[in-house]
């Protein structure tokens, strides 16, 4: 019973449900009405506290995100990365050209398809010009700022 209640609360927190009708959708149609209403009332009273605890608890997020990834299709996950700057040179009898480029090497883990299986890790190499790298860094900065503003709430 405790596992089922814990899973129910985690699902409600994960989906951000705050209204009784949303929480009601988590219960089976034939669930006891009075017990369902009591649980919904308790969940609504404690939702803000549980949401704050979830944000502060890396263990909760790791466990629940793994469960969600198994239940649905997810994007590959970057495991590690490395980078270097190379200089492309070319010459002819008149001029020399030196163009810096960034080589980004990422280790990307495939989707988890079954519990107990270790997904494959692939190496992905990307070559970025200075302009492309600037665009990517600008986009990542915007993502960082948005994540920071959400985390402060």
UniProtKB/TrEMBL annotation:
Domain called COMM: residue spans: 77-151
InterPro entries with a match to the protein in the record: COMM, COMMD9, COMMD9_N
Protein name, UniProt field: COMM domain-containing protein
């Amino acid at each position: 019973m405790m596992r089922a209640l814990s899973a129910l609360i985690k699902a409600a927190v994960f989906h951000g449900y705050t209204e009784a009708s949303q929480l009601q959708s988590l219960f089976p149609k034939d669930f006891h009405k009075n017990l369902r209403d009591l649980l919904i009332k308790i969940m609504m009273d404690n939702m803000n506290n549980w949401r704050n605890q979830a944000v502060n608890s890396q263990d909760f997020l790791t466990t629940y995100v793994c469960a969600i990834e198994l239940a649905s299709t997810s994007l590959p996950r970057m495991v590690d990365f490395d980078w270097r700057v190379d200089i492309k040179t070319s010459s002819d009898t008149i001029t020399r050209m030196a163009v810096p480029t960034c080589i980004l090497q990422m280790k990307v883990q495939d989707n988890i398809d079954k519990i107990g299986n270790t997904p494959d890790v692939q190496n992905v190499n990307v070559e970025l010009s200075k302009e492309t790298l600037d665009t990517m860094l600008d986009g990542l900065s915007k993502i960082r700022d948005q994540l920071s503003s959400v985390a402060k709430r």
